[in-house]
Design brief:
Number of helices: 5
Largest sheet: none
Oligomer: single chain
Structural class: mainly alpha
Order of helices and strands: HHHHH
Shape: rod-shaped
Amino acid sequence: MKVRAPPASMMIRRAAATKSRFRHCHRSEAHQENDRADDKNKRDFRDRNRVSADEDYEVEYFARENAVTIEQVRELIKANGNDREALIEAARVLRERK
């Protein structure tokens, strides 16, 4: 016995019903504006010039890029603040002291 595909009109009705059923799942624009700053979809680069000591991936990346340890990065942030340029300069001075 062959299985026949449903007619196109029935498929269109099913698609419309599914779309209306899941319409409530999409967030409104008002909710999207109130998203957290660490939303990876927002690409405004506001905090690219800072290093967060609370975010392990940022500390690890900074340590790897500047050839210092993770503990040294956390100490540099405590001493110099979280400005990326100041931290890069402090890491350079730290490396030269060795």
